[in-house]
């Protein structure tokens, strides 16, 4: 699969699952999570959707060199899974047999990867020569 298509497919996947998880949180979890847990869950959904849109943008963007684009792809994919999905686990921890608090350290790692992806995008746009 070419790089652009990978971005578009992953962007659609994360966008789709963000809508599903957002609806799940707003309806099914609204009655069983406290306000803090629900806000945390919603934060995971928001960041997932924001980065799904970034992935779609990057899938259509042709100004970033392929090597940079590949690195950004992996930073966004891994960062988003570690960040948003760990938040989902932490917010719903009481309903699982696994204690997500034991791996809560992956949330800031995921956030850092997302930040690095943004830095790489910024660098690639700054390095691009004006035509």
From TrEMBL:
<keyword id="KW-0812">Transmembrane</keyword>
<comment type="similarity">
    <text>Belongs to the UPF0382 family.</text>
</comment>
<dbReference type="Pfam" id="PF04241">
    <property type="entry name" value="DUF423"/>
</dbReference>
<dbReference type="InterPro" id="IPR006696">
    <property type="entry name" value="DUF423"/>
</dbReference>
<feature type="transmembrane region" description="Helical">
    <location>
        <begin position="47"/>
        <end position="64"/>
    </location>
</feature>
<feature type="transmembrane region" description="Helical">
    <location>
        <begin position="103"/>
        <end position="126"/>
    </location>
</feature>
<feature type="transmembrane region" description="Helical">
    <location>
        <begin position="71"/>
        <end position="91"/>
    </location>
</feature>
<keyword id="KW-1133">Transmembrane helix</keyword>
<keyword id="KW-0472">Membrane</keyword>
<protein>
    <submittedName>
        <fullName>Membrane protein</fullName>
    </submittedName>
</protein>
<dbReference type="GO" id="GO:0005886">
    <property type="term" value="C:plasma membrane"/>
</dbReference>
<feature type="transmembrane region" description="Helical">
    <location>
        <begin position="7"/>
        <end position="27"/>
    </location>
</feature>
């Amino acid at each position: 699969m070419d790089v652009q298509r990978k971005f578009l497919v992953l962007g659609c996947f994360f966008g789709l699952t963000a809508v599903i998880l957002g609806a799940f949180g707003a309806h099914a979890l609204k009655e069983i999570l406290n306000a803090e847990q629900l806000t945390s869950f919603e934060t995971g959904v928001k960041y997932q959707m924001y980065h799904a849109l970034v992935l779609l943008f990057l899938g259509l963007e042709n100004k970033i060199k392929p090597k940079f684009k590949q690195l950004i792809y992996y930073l966004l994919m891994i960062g988003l899974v570690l960040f948003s999905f760990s938040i989902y686990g932490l917010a719903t921890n009481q309903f699982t047999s696994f204690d997500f608090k034991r791996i809560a350290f992956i949330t800031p790692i995921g956030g850092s990867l997302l930040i690095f992806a943004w830095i790489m995008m910024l660098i690639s746009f700054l390095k691009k020569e004006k035509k």
